[in-house]
Queue: 2 jobs
Job 1
Amino acid sequence: MNTQGRPTRLAQDVDPGAYDDTLSGSRGLEQAEPLLFERGSLDVTGVDLPEPKGTQSRLGNVERKGVIGLPGLSEPEAMRHYVRLSRKNYAIDLGLYPLGSCTMKHNPRLNEKMARLPGFADVHPLQPEQTVQGAYKLIEELARWLMVLTGTPAVAMSPKAGAHGELCGMLAIRAALDARGEKNRRRVLVPESAHGTNPATAVQCGFYCDAIPADATGRVDMEAFKAKLGDDVAGIMLTNPNTCGLFERDIREIADLIHEAGGYFYCDGANFNAIVGRVRPGDLGIDAMHINLHKTFSTPHGGGGPGSGPTVFSEALAPFAPLPFVVKTKDGASLKMAENECDVDGTGATPFGRMTAFHGQMGMFTRALTYMMSHGSDGLKQASEDAVLNANYILASLKDVMTPAFEGTCMHEALFDDRFLKDTGVTTLDFAKAMIDEGYHPMTMYFPLVVHGAMLIEPTETESKSGLDRFCDVLRGLTEAAKAGEADRFRAAPVHAPMRRLDETLAARQPVLRWTPPVADAAE
């Protein structure tokens, strides 16, 4: 699972501990909770309703012919089951989320309130246009904010996530190259410090990747970059700030060189939250960039999704932006759904196609615009500055005991390697597992791959100084314990979590996704 071959199971001579010190299996307020199938019964139900009489089923030949196979629970049992499961999850409402390159920031409740307003929460993509003019106006306003913040003239709102936005940008680049009659350009330069999805997206679009190594500072090696330029280069996919948490200082020169070579500049905008209000990517020479609304503008992330990844374009790529898109009309606004509707004003628009059936994620649009309007331009700028400040505070607070991967300051995330754990018998994975016992979600581990034993920490702008101090105190204490020879403590961790350490490699390769009843003992 990892090229460094990190161990994913407990050492054989380490006692992991267990919940065998209580009769119930629970510990105080931490309730033990089995699977529903283990505690419920298939022959009972928590609903006490009589069988209907004198009725005839209207399901025809699709009526259920066998038992459904779900366990029956009383209402309190079902409620307690899910409440107890929720207590086993880490959440931003519980504590700091230090995952690097993920931006697990607080989602203001105001955003949720606005997204639930009638007309937004219940809007349907198949409604007549005259009934969704408010939704069109909101999309148009959000698009305006995105174009102003990025310094670009066009944006596609339909991509549903970051990687979807990458796909949008690279398909536009391919369409532009094909329109120029340069189908020979299929090589995409991808720095080692770029986001991991970038190479996969390029290949998905029919390109092949050529890696650019990082220099000693963690940024693009300019000599290696220049050596790889040629007439078959389609463009570059660069993340800025990159996944080492560093700003690419040579980005303007990179843009100029890739354009001189006839290629396009795709910028991964996953870390845009570090520079909003301070830098406009359009001024840096980018041709396309996706924006993760969930990372930069506070909409729910991951399991709280769905995501949203609008993609902005330069003048060179704007004509190839995908369908559909909102345009102003004399009667309000309309959604252009077909290619023959696009070039009625002679703009030369030739969309490469369409990304989705409809036009993006309305709930995410509402949340993101709420966040923007409640902060204002000055507030968005301060949020970025505070994110960078918090990351550098962590870096400065821990650099005397942990080992920063690179010299100098960082952007929105602090990156450490595992040199401080040398000869302790403790690995990055062990260190992260010990953080769980301390009540913290681990930071991003072993990524970026250019740093050995990487520990990537992103506090975001939403954490207070006292919260950061407490977090740093814990990491400092764990570091001192590792250097003091307490390796067994780390290899046993987590001890206080609901589950012990698992064999993660085996679980990934042989997942058990279906519960089966235990086989009765033959002796019984």
Note: The chain has a mean pLDDT of 89.
Job 2
Amino acid sequence: MSDDAPKPVSLLRWMTAPLRLALATVLSTSRMNLRALSDQGMTWVWAAAPVIGLLVGAAAVLFRELIGLVQLLWLGTRSEHVVTAAQDIPAWVILLAPALGGLVVGVLLKLVQPMQRTFSVADVIEARAKAGEGLSFWPGLSSALITVLSLGSGASAGREGPMVHLGATLGAQFTRLPRLTAASRRLLLACGVAGAVSASFNAPIAGLLFAHEVVLGHYALSAIAPVAVASVLATIVARLWFGDVAAFVIPAHQVTSYWEFPAFALLGLTCAAVAILFQYSLIGTDWLARHVTLRIWLRPALGGLLIGAIALVFPEILGVGYETTDAALRNQLGLDLMLMLLVAKTAATSITLASRFGGGIFSPALYLGAMAGGAFGLIAARVFPELASSEGLYAILGMGGVAAAVLGAPLSTTVIVFELTGGYTLSLALLLTVSVAVGLTQAILGRSYFHWQLEMRGLSLSAGSHLYLRDRVKVRDFMDPLPEQQEAPDPFDPEAGTPFLRDGDTLTMALRTFDECGEANLPVVDSGDPQRIVGQARHVRSLRFFNHALIEEATESHR
């Protein structure tokens, strides 16, 4: 071989150069992506997600079993068949059991709850805006135990909302892991929420969707996988304990005719009316209760007495109400009874929550939807007997319509109804009913019940968490303080008419002041001593804070 001939090794390297270049590019890109994933704290999220799912699944099992144990003390059963058990119970027990349970709840609210109330989904949404802050472990645990006592003693509310808070609280305990960004901390909350919904309803897909739709407020691709893992594992734990069965085992239903679809749209209108009246009842009763002067420990006891009085006539309102909902889906309730239960359950749930019992609105919304849908179906069958489907089918559609309108979660509620009933063949009718109900409710109320609760507390998050940030950030967070070596300026005279800011003013107030006075820089005075300047605020820097919040929220929802 001559010296000028290419050597075999050099030829091989020349032939494989494109492959080696492609491989190096792939490895470099992979390392860069993995480094970005680590910098965002996602490796910790992935590690924590399965643990959260298992913990929340076990907590959901324990939560449900403890409710059954409390219920066993006076009803003699741990099952969902509360109405059947109540038929064999003396009237005085039905009257007094919720009141006695309420007395215990009231004492616990007074002694152990920091805010003298239990927590719910609205508190989780607020914690999401705070990037995972505000969900302390022991208050969350005591809130769950108070809810156990409430529902076990017959309070007319749901167990899923409080379970969502407990799941989020467990997820929040992992937000102390190192190198977590605000977005990754919110993901840990969502993992707990998804696990709670999926384990409570035996509905893993609905748990995934609910966490994104209600808590995160977006469907970012990076968030789906860890939240799904937590949802699946929580469901597995619940199924290992309770079995793989739907919450409501119902006969097969099918749409009789496509001519029924106008009726399904009209049912959506009916569901919107029921959802709006239900929310007005909840808010109005709560407002009335706040204007009644009564010691906190007596409030649940009095409410329990009222609930017991209603239960003497309508025992169907006691507890979660799954047995009565199931009866509506099975075509076992008459028109008059369903119409009366609409009123009775609305009143009982409003009294329950206004009296500071623990509980949520998931199950009551499903209950009211089943009653409204079943009653609508019976009326439709009388008007158009040849075209109308069974009232059980309308009850399923009503469940989805009212619950979606109240919760402000059309997608996840639709899937919850699918997974609760196994009724996937009703998808077209359910989507139409839910869409009409949610659209009309939003047009009239402009918000879900959860955001209504937050706005009553002075927190407006329905337009985006960045607006909440504007009210949370204070001037002291972005002002330029006086250098330590520099002496404070001469005392400032706030009466001189010169524009200024206080260090405790919100970012919203600062932006408004900058806009009104047109100044680029403003002195900042001590909130406790308005005559002493403590720093300087710059308009540009305040805008940077606000823009950063906008960019961060947009990035999180599209990553």
Note: The longest strand covers residues 533-538.
